[in-house]
């Protein structure tokens, strides 16, 4: 079955409005792909290239009336240039060992995830996740998912969850030990995934959604150049363009 025929057979559904997880004054709705439809890397890659995102087994994209704050972004990794602060983070963490593993549940990962949520995002809902919640959020039976483990000596200090697409990586989530905040492990994890994307011959690293009015999502514009999916087209934006776009949205 061709990709076009496959996509035509896939059904999409719209959720009921619910409180937005990112903006306090908004309601959100999402379009999600039929959870029972068989998925493979080709279909997944095409959906991500059209603004979709994976959460657990589900593929979704925002579909909010009168709001376009969630902007899919990706880094063209072969054009990326580190800024001064990124170079500092990169040099600071050269003593960190990185291992890539297939995505399976490990108790050590879950304990680090729990510590991260409790200390970094208290009362956010995810700080009360149990093991099943963790698995349902990060893993999927049909995706080619990897875990990048970051080790300092014999201590696990960070984990990045990433999906391999046909021509790109999609960064799903990163969590780290808050005791090592000064190392900038979130930043170092993205820089690592950019470098790994280059080494593995990928053209892009998808970072999910940039939201100009959400502090925890604004960091994505620090990685330049970056591309945004706007009006069903990927467009290259620089920092100034981002600022102009944010003003136009508000």
Explain the overall architecture.
- With 250 residues, this protein is of the alpha+beta class.
- The chain has 2 domains: 68 residues, no CATH class; 177 residues, Aminopeptidase.
- 29% of the residues lie in helices and 30% in strands.
- The chain has an 8-stranded mixed β-sheet.
- The longest helix has 15 residues.
- The protein starts with a helix and ends with a helix.
Structural domains: how many:
2
The overall pLDDT average reads: 91
Q: What's the story with the biggest beta sheet?
A: 8 strands, mixed
- Cα-based radius of gyration, to the nearest Å: 18 Å
- Show unreliable segments: none
CATH architecture designation of the largest domain: 3-Layer(aba) Sandwich
**Helical content (DSSP H or I, runs of 4+):** 25-40%
Please list the strands of the largest sheet in the order they lie side by side.
Answer: 8-9-10-11-12-7-13-14
Gross morphology: globular
Quick one: how many beta strands? 14
State the end-to-end distance.
44 Å
The level 1 CATH classification of the largest domain is Alpha Beta
In DSSP terms (H or I, runs of 4 or more residues), the helix count works out at 7
Q: What would CATH call the homologous superfamily of the largest domain?
A: Gcn5-related N-acetyltransferase (GNAT)
């Amino acid at each position: 079955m061709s990709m076009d025929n496959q996509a035509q057979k896939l059904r999409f559904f719209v959720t009921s409005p619910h409180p937005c997880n990112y903006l306090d004054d908004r309601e959100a709705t999402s379009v999600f792909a039929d959870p029972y439809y068989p998925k493979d890397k080709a279909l997944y890659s095409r959906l991500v290239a059209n603004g979709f995102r994976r959460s657990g087994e589900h593929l979704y994209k925002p579909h909010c009336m009168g709001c376009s704050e969630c902007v899919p972004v990706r880094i063209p990794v072969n054009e990326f240039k580190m800024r001064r602060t990124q170079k500092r983070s990169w040099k600071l963490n050269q003593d960190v060992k990185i291992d890539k593993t297939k995505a399976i549940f490990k108790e050590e990962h879950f304990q680090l995830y729990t510590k991260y949520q409790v200390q970094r995002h208290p009362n956010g809902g995810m700080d009360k996740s149990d093991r099943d919640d963790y698995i349902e959020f990060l893993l999927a039976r049909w995706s080619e998912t990897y875990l990048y483990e970051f080790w300092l000596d014999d201590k696990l200090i960070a984990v990045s969850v990433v999906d391999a697409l046909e021509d790109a990586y999609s960064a799903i989530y990163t969590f780290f030990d808050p005791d090592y905040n000064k190392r900038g492990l979130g930043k170092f994890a993205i820089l690592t995934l950019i470098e790994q994307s280059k080494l593995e011959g990928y053209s892009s690293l998808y970072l999910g959604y940039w939201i100009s009015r959400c502090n925890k999502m604004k960091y994505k514009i620090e990685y330049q150049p970056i591309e945004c999916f706007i009006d069903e087209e990927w467009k290259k934006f620089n920092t100034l363009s981002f600022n102009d776009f944010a003003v136009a949205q508000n």
